[in-house]
Amino acid sequence: MKLGIIGLPLAGKATIFEALAGARGEGPQQKGGRSDQRIGTVRVADERVDYLSSLYRPKKTTYARVEYLLPSSAGGGGTAPAMPDSGFWAQARACDALIHVVRNFKGTMGIPPASEADFRTIEEEMIINDLAVVEKKIERMDLDAKRGKKDEEGLRELMDACRALLEENRPLRSDPELARSPELRSFTFLSAKPRLLVINNEDEDERFPSWSSPPEPAEVLVVRGSLEKEIASLPPEEAEEFMTAYHIETSALDRVIRSSYELLDLISFFTVGEDEVKAWTIPGGATALEAAGVIHSDIQQGFIRGEVISFEELKRFGSLQEAKKAGQLRLEGKEYIVRDGDIVHFRFNV
Fold this sequence. Notes:
three-stranded mixed sheet
């Protein structure tokens, strides 16, 4: 899962990135293909993995991971932020979801925030970028039609629907069914991507700013980025004291991760044993066969059955042996829908 951090320059994107990647980042933050593109891989804290690891005492414990991308920004100095360039948006298109950071603190030279206007500016940029892609595709399809080439079935109707929505200055995500159309996936539309809106506040400000109209549609988090970045760099004991002092119940990292899973409709299942306890991330509604393929194509190809127990049942009985005696270990076939927290042992033959 890769999430791109977008927003106007001076919004605090780098601060948010460092707050996220600094808290539980694994290894050094790496630079991508562009000079200042940054990628951070973060471990997803999960008490269920902690418990399973303490129960099985494996040689290795592997948590789920989330990757954050901070695209390279457009250049520009002074007090007025430059707009993100085409390279910035190209990098954002490669992400599964977007974290849109909006400044709600005094900027350089004491510039007051204009959070709603800043939000609309980036929203409109995504819409304009997507409209250009749609119009180019429609133009090509019209040219092909004149040459006698048939359109891909249903694609023209989808493109017309996209154009109509974008010309109304509305993001594609405002029509969830359209945004999720499999036929549109290869176009990587920016305004169709799931989007988490992060309002980056002053250290003492916990409130959402007053806007004339709410964003459409959006999951919103209010974060004090500079403060969270500082907390992420502290030892656990000191970090806890700071969080208590500033009334922060859950870190920005954990709130962003939780919201990201919800945005993308993702769940976790686990495999356990003496060698390794591991969390795996799959889409909600995935079958046992699809979950097997996430681990290895051989397991998917040779799938026989899955032995399944929920984490809560295993914890209630204290061991797999006791749960099995109580009849809580189930045998499931290929079409079983894996649930969040399932512990699965796959039987297969290749």
